Amino acid sequence: MRERASDQPRSSHAVSTDQSVPGWRDILDALATRRSCRDFDGSRIDRDILAEIVQDGTEAPSSCNQQQWHFIIVDDRDLLRRAHDISGGNHHFAECSALVYLCFQKGWTHGNFSVVQSVAGACYHMMLSAHLRGFSCIWNAGIGDKDALAEMLAVPAVFEIQGALAIGRARPTAPDMKAPRRPFEQVHSWNGFSRPDPSVYPVKDAPTYPYFDIRNDHNPFAIWDPTRWTWPQVGDFRGYSVWAKSPLAGVYVSRRQGAATEAELSLLPDLSDGARVVELMPWGGTYSVELRRRLRAGVELRLAELSEANLSFILERFRQEGLSLDQVQTDLIAGPRLAYEDSSVDAMVLPQVLEQMPDPKAVLDEVQRVLKPGGCLVVSVRNLDSAYGALWRTEESKAQVPNQGPFTPLSATRVRSWLASRFEIDRETGIGREASGDAATVSGPESLTCRLFAARCLK
User: Fold this and answer.
1) Could you tell me if 348 and 371 are in contact, meaning their C-beta atoms sit under 8 angstroms apart?
2) Contact indicator for 104, 115 with CB cutoff of 8 Å
3) Given this model, what pLDDT does residue 1 score?
4) How far apart are CA 302 and CA 370, in angstroms?
5) For 422, how many CA atoms within 13 A lie in the half-sphere containing its CB?
6) What CA–CA distance (Å, rounded) separates 428 from 457?
7) What 3-state DSSP class applies to 353?
8) pLDDT beyond 70 at 13
9) What share of the chain is helix, strand, coil (3-state, %, to 5)?
10) What is the CA radius of gyration of the chain?
11) For the domain with range 255-458, which CATH number is right: 3.40.50.300, 2.40.440.10, 3.40.50.150, 3.30.420.240?
12) Do residues 265 and 290 touch, judged by C-beta distance below 8 A?
């Protein structure tokens, strides 16, 4: 095991030299408060100020000092709306004061991505300049169709658009929180590589992992099967990934998924005040918000999750949606064992999470243990025996594991047998006949062939 420095507070390392810049510790502490913002007020920023922020970025180092970068500042509101549309719906593109498109000339010092690293360094320098001036910003790699952007901005073919920096003023109601940083002890070591096992995710064995063989849409080394992950690895992934975690109200809710959520929650019985409901392994708050809205005000909702960081985002999402936290509690779990007494829970909700668990049957055993006699389980799974399952098997699973975490769709027939051996199945339904794009509900034997299989079970 390699030696690591201890994870001490920053102030304990406040060591200066004769050449230190006065107030350097205060400056660094101020820079550390920078956080990404996706909620801008749409106000304008003077062009002279925007130009100064971008000019500050050019003080960053560049490979061989060639400075083969170019920055396109877009503050025209019509172009910002087009940028929003091209991005696929990044709402903050239309609301920020300006977008700075980050470009570099192709064919120059590409070894080790040096020209890309140069632009990234300049971008971060701009972010710090904006932050110190009291503005907010967010860097985006997901900018959409680059050909459409190049046409919109008249970018010549020899230049590449690498990303975009959104700058503006945060709304007063914007979330006042920064995404969690990993403990320092996880991300550094002395005189050799050493890293805690939960923060190293599983990949397929291979003699080498060539960089250009790995893409978002095609990763031959990715392991989607959560049974090959440990619970700590899954928890680590969920804690730091940002999929669907923007705590802004109404964000990341698709029409199709919204309709599916409605169909799933229709299985939940009308619970009286004082009842206890547990949602297991919630994701980012999108589903949790709709669940809270469906419950009576006096029903207690408990969120059981593998990651404290994920829970903090969900609670902020509740606040942004204007929902009371008086009857909302959070519980941290380390694996399949649930921190509830026997026969103490009125209802458990497992929305499309069995397929993300290293040991789903062990979790169902725990659900059976903690439910009261007559208690209700509402569960849904992505169905391997469906058009979606075929799409996942032939296309989706060839890509990189998504930010929502590793998962493998489960056979509805198989899951139904797991449920029947532990509970009384009171009602079941299929959701979505197509591989994607619909949320039609189906009953009877055909329900086992839909994109989602959902059931209400009684203990």
Assistant:
1) yes
2) yes
3) 34
4) 13
5) 22
6) 9
7) coil
8) no
9) 35, 20, 45
10) 25
11) 3.40.50.150
12) yes
Q: Give the separation between CA 20 and CA 259, rounded to whole angstroms.
A: 58
CATH number assigned to the domain covering 30-168: 3.40.109.10
Please tell me the distance from the alpha carbon of residue 211 to that of residue 328, in angstroms, as a whole number: 44
What contacts 78, CB < 8 A, 6 or more positions away? none
CB 104, CB 160: distance < 8 Å: yes
Give the Cα separation of 95 and 269 in Å (integer).
40
Percent of the chain at pLDDT exceeding 70: 94
Determine how many CB atoms are found less than 10 A away from the CB of residue 295.
Answer: 19
Overall residue count recorded for the chain in this entry? 459
Order of all β-strands in the sheet with 136-140 = 69-74, 98-105, 159-168, 136-140
Predicted model pTM: 0.91
Count H helices, E strands: the chain? Answer: 13, 12
Sign of CA pseudo-dihedral 204, 206, 211, 212? negative
Q: CA 206 to CA 6: how far, in whole Å?
A: 33
Gap between the Cα atoms of 224 and 74, Å rounded: 39
* CA atoms of 100 and 119, how far apart (whole Å): 12
Task: Provide the pLDDT confidence category of residue 5 given band limits of 50, 70 and 90.
Answer: very low
Per DSSP, which regions of 91-145 are E strands? 98-105, 136-140
* Averaged pLDDT, 301-311: 94
The domain segmentation of the chain, as residue ranges, is: 30-168, 255-458
Give the alpha-carbon dihedral of 215, 221, 225, 229, to 10 degrees: -110
- 251: pLDDT strictly greater than 80: no
- By CB neighbour count within 10 A (0-12 exposed, 13-18 middle, 19+ buried), where does 75 fall? middle
Residue 61 DSSP class: -
Degrees, nearest 5: CA angle 62-63-64: 110
Q: What angle do CA 103, 109, 113 make, to 5 degrees?
A: 70
* Distance, CA of 259 to CA of 439 (rounded, Å): 6
pLDDT digits (tens, 9 = 90+) for 266-276: 999 999 999 99
Other CB atoms within 10 Å distance of the CB of residue 206: 10
